[in-house]
């Protein structure tokens, strides 16, 4: 772009930090160039030369689409306005789709609610943490993480190539105890020992 074509107050496409962004030029800088505002980030920016400007930023306009009006409702509203009685003839259009229908269409979110015995979530995959909770509940007595890992590996539902799965399980169990609190599946009962939380 040429320097003579640049006008203060216009929005231009300018290259700032390697990205082309909309920049509104606010004033001419006394040292040359322009001071402006990056409209994407809201930060002030200085354009030193017109070479950084790529042209006017295109204004995006939404096309106006006229919906077919209900002739009967429009006629009643116009008649009520002419009479001066606005409360009588004005009808409020109803939503095309009710909120309940919209909610039913979306379905269940399928996320973990953090509650025990929650329904509607995704199928629980066989992770070490889930299998350890199952093994601990079936055992009915406190166990160390190493014992839980050995029992899980004995079931054959889970395999690992890692060298320290018991340390990984220990940190995962502690994380669940801290994040879920009373809703956690594990309860620490001694040094390195965990018991299944009672239901």
Q: How helical, in percent, are the residues?
A: 25-40%
Give the termini separation: 72 Å
How would you name the oligomeric state of the polypeptide chains in this document?
single chain
Sketch the major β-sheet. 5 strands, antiparallel
Elements, N to C (H/E): EEEEEHHHHEHHEE
Mean pLDDT across every amino acid position: 79
Detail the poorly predicted runs.
none
Structural class: alpha+beta
Widest beta sheet: strand line-up: 4-3-2-1-5
Radius of gyration: 33 Å
Number of helices: 6
- The global form is flat
SS elements, strand count: 8
Strand content: 15-25%
Concise synopsis of the structure shown:
The protein has 199 residues and is an alpha+beta fold.
Model description:
- It is a single chain.
- The strands form 2 sheets. The protein has a 5-stranded antiparallel beta sheet with strand order 4-3-2-1-5, with no helix packed on it. A 3-stranded antiparallel beta sheet has the order 6-8-7.
- A hairpin with a 5-residue loop joins strand 2 (19-28) and strand 3 (34-38).
- Among the domains are: 10-56, SH3 type barrels; 128-196.
- It is built from 6 helices and 8 strands, in the order E-E-E-E-E-H-H-H-H-E-H-H-E-E.
- The chain has helices spanning 71-83, 86-89, 99-106, 128-139, 145-155, 165-180; strands at residues 11-16, 19-28, 34-38, 44-47, 53-56, 143-144, 186-190, 193-196.
